[in-house]
Design brief:
Oligomer: single chain
Strand content: 15-25%
Helix content: 40-55%
CATH architecture of the largest domain: 3-Layer(aba) Sandwich
Order of helices and strands: HEHEHEHEHEHEHEHEHEHHEHHHEEEEE
Number of strands: 15
Radius of gyration: 40 Å
Structural class: alpha/beta
Shape: elongated
Largest sheet: 7 strands, mixed
CATH topology of the largest domain: Rossmann fold
CATH class of the largest domain: Alpha Beta
Length: 418
């Protein structure tokens, strides 16, 4: 029996080893791989492209071409305006610029009497494709130069042009000088009150070559004639060397007073000739607003003290910024300024305040649209300038004339003309 049991057990063990994988050379049992669950890929949402804000500034700096007389007979006026512009830009940039970007002025000289140079300067300004051009500062070049800009849809801020010239360009032109007629007439209304007995005859020395000055002369004459005063005009071309004939002619008219409405250089020469011929009572002389000039102050107190003068700015205005500008100007040049630094400063002030209010971008693709919007805003606005709050109504600045007595090469005893 044992001989059967032992082989049987051996067979059982072998079979068990086979099933257990213990037989040498036997393959291990195959465990099927566990397949993890398939997770679909996560697709991030597609964000729409980020558009810049519609009013985002598109420039690194704001450049303003200034078409200005920097050489020749009228260079002083241009240089005074530019001095005021520099003061204004320094203030704006110190406060962070316009919408965070600095202002830069680019002066372009139109000279004083070269129309070809004036036209070339305006073409250079237009080629800059600006939102607005400051100038030109020469009335007589306005009609020639300005269409170069307006036909391209570029606005003009006429810093130094008389209102009658500036508004010809609307809706593309705004002026920073009040209308000549009310200024001139109210100034003459004030002047006639200074005499007892009343004036009956006045000689006026008139400009023949600056449109704004010719306009002043015409309106001053009308203002005096409204009081029954005879006015004799003596034409005085700018650049006249010998002004003695003007003085001789004036004295021969035997007037009660004389009114000077021409270039300051000719005013100086004419007053000198008058003094040499016995016309020495300065209270009988009155200077129009553009006479205030270094050439005039160089004449000396003997020839100027007690002279009447009118202009459309008040050097005694208490505005802190204006008083600081006045002090800086006197320290730098040792003379009294005219109104020109104030209008230069105001050109910067109104531009900066306009751009901020309209959120101007400077985007070249929107240049025509934004330029017209600038003109529309400036045409009827209130802004803070060199000496207080100023107003423009229907493209024209609104401000009074001021009347003064000249003492020690300064404008004193200022009175606002009604």
């Amino acid at each position: 029996m044992k001989k059967f049991i032992i082989p049987l057990l051996t067979a059982v063990i072998v079979v068990a080893m086979v099933f257990a994988g213990c037989v040498p050379g036997a393959a291990p049992p195959v465990t099927p791989p566990v397949t993890p669950p398939v997770t679909p890929p996560v697709t991030p949402p597609v964000e729409p492209p980020v558009e810049p804000p519609a009013d985002e500034v598109a420039v690194d700096k704001w450049e303003f071409p200034f078409v200005v007389m920097l050489t020749g007979l009228y260079a002083f006026y241009g240089k005074e305006i530019l001095w005021g512009i520099d003061q204004g830009i320094a203030d704006v940039n110190a406060a962070g610029g316009i919408r965070g970007k600095p202002m830069v002025v680019v002066p372009l000289d139109i000279t004083s009497d070269d129309f070809e140079a004036g036209l070339a300067a305006m073409v250079r300004a237009v080629d800059m494709n600006p939102l607005i051009i400051w100038g030109p500062t020469h009335d007589s070049m306005h009609a020639t130069c300005v269409p170069k800009a307006t036909e391209k849809g570029i606005g003009i801020l006429a810093i130094n042009n008389c209102e009658e010239v500036a508004v010809r360009s609307k809706p593309w032109g705004v002026g920073l000088i009040a209308a000549n007629e009310p200024l001139s007439v109210t100034a003459m209304n004030m002047w006639v009150t200074k005499y007892d007995p009343p004036l009956t005859k006045v000689v006026q020395f008139c400009s023949t070559d600056i449109e704004g000055w010719i306009s002043f002369g015409n309106f001053q004459k009308a203002g005096l004639e409204a009081h029954g005063i005879e006015v004799v005009d003596i034409p005085v071309p700018s650049g006249t060397v010998n002004c003695a004939p003007f003085a001789v002619t004036a004295i021969a008219e035997e007037p009660d007073a004389m009114l000077f409405t021409c270039h300051p250089v000719e005013i100086v020469k004419t007053i000198t000739e008058l003094h040499n011929r016995g016309w020495t009572d300065n209270t009988k002389n009155c200077l129009f607003e553009c006479a205030i000039n270094p050439d005039l102050w160089a004449l000396g107190e003997e020839y100027l003290n007690d002279t009447w003068a009118w202009t459309f700015y008040n050097p005694d205005d208490p505005t802190a910024r204006w008083q600081q500008m006045l002090a800086d100007y006197r320290a730098e040049f040792e003379i009294e300024p005219s109104f020109h630094p104030a209008v230069g400063y105001d050109a910067v002030a109104i531009t900066a305040q306009c751009f901020e209010a309209l959120k101007i971008t400077g985007d070249s693709a929107r240049r025509a649209e934004e330029s017209l919007a600038i003109m529309d805003w400036m045409a009827n606005c209130t802004y803070v300038g060199a000496y207080g709050t100023k107003t423009i109504v229907d493209y024209t600045k609104v401000e009074p004339a001021w009347f003064f007595v000249v003492e020690s090469s300064m404008l004193t005893q200022g009175e606002e003309c009604d």
